[in-house]
Write a structure and sequence with these properties.
Layout: H1 2-15, E1 38-48, E2 54-55, H2 58-61, E3 65-71, E4 77-85, E5 90-97, E6 99-108, E7 114-124, E8 127-138
Parallel strand pairs: 1-8
Antiparallel strand pairs: 1-2, 1-5, 3-4, 3-6, 6-7, 7-8
Length: 143
């Protein structure tokens, strides 16, 4: 009888489709990344001008809208906010697993052409991370 129960238990375990990891400290969390440290990061933007100087004024740089993209360490798009008003002058991003990310900032003028762009490597630690001011490179005038 004991051998039959062990065989039945083994058959049930082998027939199970997989396991589900549940974080009991965060009951809404399911999957492999539960319990991983989470970090937030914030930054401001400013712009290189045609003459090489730098300005934090969207009007002076002729930038109306910003696109923000965050790529994970495998190059997959993790987060994007497009067509954000430039006048916000920065952004705070929340709930990223700790690790390395690539941040792309793109500035567009009122006519829609890309006039500024910047790529930044970011390492997110647990808790709050402040990146400071990120300067976007000047590409071309508004067209």
């Amino acid at each position: 009888m004991k051998i039959a129960n062990i065989a039945l238990l083994a058959a049930l375990v082998l027939a199970a489709p997989g396991c589900l990891i549940v974080d009991h400290e965060d009951p809404g969390c399911y999957g492999d990344y539960c319990g991983d440290p989470i970090g937030n990061f914030g930054f401001w933007w400013s712009f290189e001008l045609a003459d090489g100087s730098v300005s934090d004024s969207c009007d002076v740089a002729d930038v109306a809208r910003m696109d923000v993209r965050v790529f994970n360490d495998r190059g997959d798009l993790e987060y994007a906010v497009l067509d954000r008003p430039c006048r916000d002058l920065g952004l705070d991003l929340y709930d990223f697993r700790t690790g390395r990310y690539d941040l792309q900032l793109t500035g567009r003028c009122s006519l829609g052409s890309v006039t500024h762009e910047g790529w930044y490597e970011v390492y997110v630690d647990a808790g709050e991370n402040e990146l400071g001011v990120l300067v976007l490179d000047y590409l071309e005038p508004c067209r």
